[in-house]
Every structure is written in structure tokens, then in C-alpha cells.
TrEMBL record:
Residues 30-390 form the Luciferase-like domain. InterPro entries: Diverse_substr_monoxygenases, Luciferase-like_dom, Luciferase-like_sf, NTA_MOA. The keyword Repeat does not apply. It comes from Muricoccus nepalensis. Belongs to the NtaA/SnaA/DszA monooxygenase family. This is LLM class flavin-dependent oxidoreductase. GO terms for molecular function: monooxygenase activity; oxidoreductase activity, acting on paired donors, with incorporation or reduction of molecular oxygen.
């Protein structure tokens, strides 16, 4: 008998002063000890109590400073002004939990593959096979400047480089057999050298010899997360991702995007059912619809126009302060924007081939809770909305927070039991590793290198 389909729930976190919603730090209920490990461990325990499969951290390698070529408004207004390294934080969370999966964003543009391979393989061992890597190619010139470069790589070139990066990383991860370690003190034999291979990789962008110095974890290798939704990014996600993080502005767009992504996976020779697609959403829960709406109004009122302007410039790698609000972007300007999926979403929602700055502000919802779909109401009403999406537009959800940790506490206390009552979400973890809990296979050792899409 086939087990009923159940959704994956993932928390969307930031190692900074706010959640994805930059105004969240202004919320009266938000904790302000974000520079301490207890802040993140508290969230981790809440999520594990709610049986979330995973929490993953987004990241950038520069604060938003492109608007007006100045960081002052970002710092003064706390617009994601703090960006700490993720590894110590996910390690602290992993040591405070036993089942919650933990993902971290690392760039293929500004790091080296051997370093990333060793970093995540070690993390995976230290937290018992619960690690995931959110793969990004980075976005803007501010990040390039922090690494001593004059400009960011062109969009498609970043993904060409990223393909080789993944070939090296996964090759190293799978260069040890699962039973390579012997640890026979009497004979003095530590491991079977025949079960540890050298990679000897040579490509256009990278060379990496090996042998890799980190044995396999209980789940074989970390789970791969990616967010490519259009063009070259979709091809990359179709080749590598085991979970695809998506942004769908509404249910109709979600159904369309979900079907297109599943078709792309099939075209790449992969089983579409083996890859989970999870869009970002907010949930605001109240004892009544009216109470939930009041909460939403308060949360929505915390946002400032400067939040969105700073974040738009950050993700598109263009200074909006230099362009009149109602002047359309030229075709050439649109082609030069860093995040093509984000650009395409605004073009689609605005109905304009050449949207204006005002269109980007309005239709993206950047810096507001309009950026992602928002389920608002009682636990039953929120669960109704999620169930409708789950039926045809996703395999789960990436839950962003309007304030920390209250958003997750409310959701776990009220919505999770309702989803469990309907049989839509797990009541217990499936196993000890993240792969088990996401119902993903453990890749055999020997060098995973998926054919190019």
C-alpha cells in the first residue's frame, strides 16, 4: 500500500538582525539577541518540536549598499545589515537538536569547491547526517568587491562555473566507500586504501586532485538545495537539486511553475517525484480571522520604503536611485539585471515587457510581506490554503517569519496539529538523517556526476 503524500516543511532563516522580512526586527515580539547562539538554538528547538524537516539559511556576501552607492540607509534602518557566517550557527543549532535538518547557503562564485566539500562533509558528520547545502551563484558587484574583484560574473557564466563546481564537490564526497574505515587497533589498519579514490578532476574552471580527507556521513552526502526557476538557472537546478526553493507569487503561477519545473526535471532524465519543490510563504495565525488580520496590519505597517529599495538594488545589481521611478527599463538594461528569475516574475506580473522602477517596487513586493504568498487566518484557514497549494503547486513550503521566534511558535502550536490531523504532515520524524526525513535516497559512493542537462 502506497503511503499518503505528505508535505515538507522548511524554515527560511537568516544569520542576521531580521528574518527575510527586513522589518521583522522592529516587531515588538521579536527577540534581539541575534548575536548569540541561544537565539538560533531557541528557534531550532521550536522547529524540531513541530517536526519540521529542515531549517535553511539564505545568505549574501555583502550588505545591501548599491542604492545610492551607500550603506548608510541599510545600517541606519537595519535592512539586513548584519550577515554572519553560517557554519558556526548551524553547528550550534545541530548540537541543540537531534532530528532537524540544517542547510546553509554557500556560493559557487566566491569559494573553492574543495573547501566547500570539506566544510559541508565535516558539518554533516558533526550533526549526524542532517546537513544541506543551498547552492547559489551570488548576485552583485558588492559581493565581488569584498573578494577583490571589479565586477560580478555574467549570469550564464556563473552557472557554467557552478556545474563544474558541483562535479568537483560531489566527486570528492563520493570518493570514500561507506565501509572504507576499518579502525582495527590490533592490526594497526586504519582504512582500506582501495576504497578511497583520488578525484583527479580537470575542467575549464577547476582542477582538483584529492584524495578527499573526510569519510562519508550517515546520509552519504549533504542534501542539495537550489532555487533556479528560469533559463540557465532552471537547467542547473534540474541537473543537481534535490529540493528546489521557489518563489510563486500566487496559486495560478505556482501551478504553472510547478508543472514547468517537473517537466524540466523529466527532460533532464530525472524522476520528477524525487525532487521536492517548495515555495516561500508567510503564515499569520490568529484565534479568529479578525485577530489574524489585525496581526497582519501591524506587521505590514512595520515596513519602510527604504527596505524595498535597498533590497531590490541588492538582488538586481543596479542602482535604482539613478533612474526615474516611471522610466521603463530598456531591453539592454533588463538583460543586465543579475537575477533573471526575479526580473521575469516582475515582467509577468506587471504585464509589461519593459517595466519601470515603480513596477519593480510594486510587483515584487520586495521588503514587504507581499513578496511571498501570505496565509492569514485561523489555524484551519491557514491549513486550508496550504492544502490547496499542496494539491497542485508544490511538495511543501519554505516558511518565512514575520518576527522571531513568534512566527514559528504560532505555526507549530496552531497550524502543525491541524496539518497532522488531516494527514498532510508527519507526526514523527522518519529517521535520524535529513535524507530519511525528506524521503531521499542515499547516493552510492563512487563519484556522483550527473550528465549535463
Amino acid at each position: 500500500m502506497t503511503a499518503p503524500r505528505q508535505m515538507n516543511l522548511v524554515a527560511f532563516l537568516q544569520a542576521q538582525n531580521c528574518s527575510n522580512y527586513p522589518a521583522s526586527w522592529r516587531h515588538e515580539g521579536s527577540m534581539s539577541d541575534f548575536l548569540r547562539p541561544e537565539y538560533y538554538q531557541r528557534i531550532a528547538r521550536v522547529l524540531e518540536a513541530g517536526k519540521f524537516q529542515m531549517a535553511f539559511f539564505d545568505d549574501r556576501l555583502a550588505i545591501p549598499d548599491i542604492y545610492g552607492n551607500d550603506h548608510a540607509s541599510t545600517v541606519e534602518n537595519g535592512v539586513r545589515a548584519v550577515k554572519m557566517d553560517l557554519m558556526p550557527i548551524v553547528t550550534a543549532m545541530g548540537l541543540a537538536t537531534s532530528r532537524l535538518g540544517l542547510g546553509a547557503t554557500y556560493s559557487t562564485t566566491y569559494y573553492e569547491p574543495f573547501h566547500v566539500a570539506r566544510l559541508f562533509a565535516t558539518l554533516d558528520l558533526m550533526i549526524g547526517g542532517r546537513a544541506a547545502w543551498n547552492i547559489v551563484t551570488s548576485l552583485n558587484d558588492s559581493e565581488a568587491a569584498n573578494f577583490g574583484r571589479s565586477e560580478h560574473l555574467e549570469h550564464d557564466a556563473r552557472y557554467d562555473r557552478a556545474d563544474e563546481f558541483l562535479e568537483v564537490v560531489t566527486g570528492h564526497w563520493n570518493s570514500w566507500d561507506d565501509d572504507a574505515l576499518i579502525l582495527d587497533k590490533e592490526s594497526g589498519r586504519f582504512a582500506d586504501a582501495a576504497k578511497v579514490r583520488r578525484l583527479d578532476y580537470e575542467g575549464k574552471y577547476f582542477r582538483s586532485r584529492g584524495p578527499f580527507p573526510v569519510p562519508r556521513s550517515p546520509q552519504g552526502q549533504p542534501v542539495l538545495i537550489q532555487a533556479g526557476q528560469s533559463g540557465r538557472g532552471r537547467a542547473f537546478a534540474s541537473r543537481w537539486a534535490e529540493m528546489i526553493f521557489a518563489v510563486f507569487p500566487n496559486l495560478a503561477a505556482g501551478r504553472k511553475g510547478y508543472a514547468e519545473m517537473k517537466a524540466a526535471l523529466a527532460a533532464a532524465g530525472r524522476d520528477p517525484a524525487s525532487v521536492s519543490i517548495a515555495p516561500a510563504v508567510y503564515a499569520i495565525v490568529g484565534e479568529t480571522q479578525s485577530m489574524a488580520e489585525d496581526k497582519k496590519a501591524y506587521i505590514d505597517g512595520l515596513a519602510k520604503p527604504v527596505d524595498g529599495l535597498n533590497l531590490l538594488c541588492e538582488v538586481l545589481n543596479v542602482d535604482f536611485s539613478k533612474k526615474p521611478m516611471d522610466e521603463p527599463f530598456s531591453d539592454e538594461e533588463l538583460a543586465g539585471l543579475s537575477w533573471h528569475g526575479f526580473r521575469d516574475r516582475v515582467v509577468s506580473l506587471s504585464g509589461k515587457a519593459n517595466p519601470t522602477v515603480r513596477d519593480f517596487v510594486h510587483f515584487s513586493g520586495r521588503g514587504t510581506i507581499r513578496e511571498f504568498p501570505c496565509f492569514v487566518g485561523t489555524a484551519k484557514q491557514v491549513a486550508d490554503g496550504m492544502e490547496e497549494w499542496f494539491g497542485s503547486a508544490c511538495d511543501g513550503f519554505v516558511l518565512a517569519a514575520t518576527h522571531m521566534p513568534g512566527s514559528y511558535e504560532d505555526f507549530v502550536r496552531h497550524v502543525v496539529p491541524e496539518l497532522q490531523r488531516r494527514g498532510l504532515f508527519q507526526k514523527e520524524y522518519q529517521g535520524a538523517t535529513l535524507r530519511e526525513n525528506l524521503r531521499l535516497p542515499m547516493h552510492p559512493a563512487g563519484g556522483l556526476r550527473r550528465s549535463a542537462a
